[in-house]
Amino acid sequence: MDVLLFLKSALIGLSIAAPVGPIGLLCIQRSLAHGTHIGFISGLGAAAADACYGAVGAFGIGAITRHFVELATPLALAGALFLAWMGLKMLGATPPERAANAVDPARALPAFASVFVLTLSNPLTILSFIAIFATLAGGSPLSATSATLMVMGVFCGSAAWWLILALGIATIRHRLDARAMRWIDRIAGGCLLAFAVWQLLRTVIA
């Protein structure tokens, strides 16, 4: 049962990560511009944020849940502004030279942190995890072991998706020249700006 619970949670983590949104677009662009490692490390930022929200939901930390839900609007606004800033930065970026295979620590930490913060800007994700984990548990209170397995499963499933995505992008990355990369940066930056405007409008109207 423990293995089955872990696998179910991993599938949930993968399904949450897989839809292409601003996070996926950002990780694709970074994989193309800076290499597989940076793209994957960026994805790990999203996986870590999902695991944090999953932990709050799995362990039933009601006070933290209520606190994040109360902060939903300001966090969403901050996330939209951060997303807009990243989009503008991408629009004006000059495509770098082909990245080396080695990870640059100076680039890796900001890549992880920026996606982690951006993913945390949607605190209502906690409510989704609470509902999902309650369904998996069959309505019974989760034990500490089960909750831990679920959180680990979500992280591993999400991380697996980002690894698959980064490796997939690696197969086409070296076929792109500087001109193609400039267009990719512009399109990705424009899409991030569109996502930011949509999130701002949705938050203000709501």
From TrEMBL:
InterPro entries: LeuE-type. Keywords: Cell membrane, Membrane, Transmembrane, Transmembrane helix. The chain crosses the membrane at residues 6-28, 40-65, 71-88, 109-137, 149-171, 183-201. Pfam families: LysE. The keyword Membrane applies. It is found in: Cell membrane. This is LysE family transporter. The lineage of its organism: Bacteria, Pseudomonadati, Pseudomonadota, Gammaproteobacteria, Pseudomonadales.
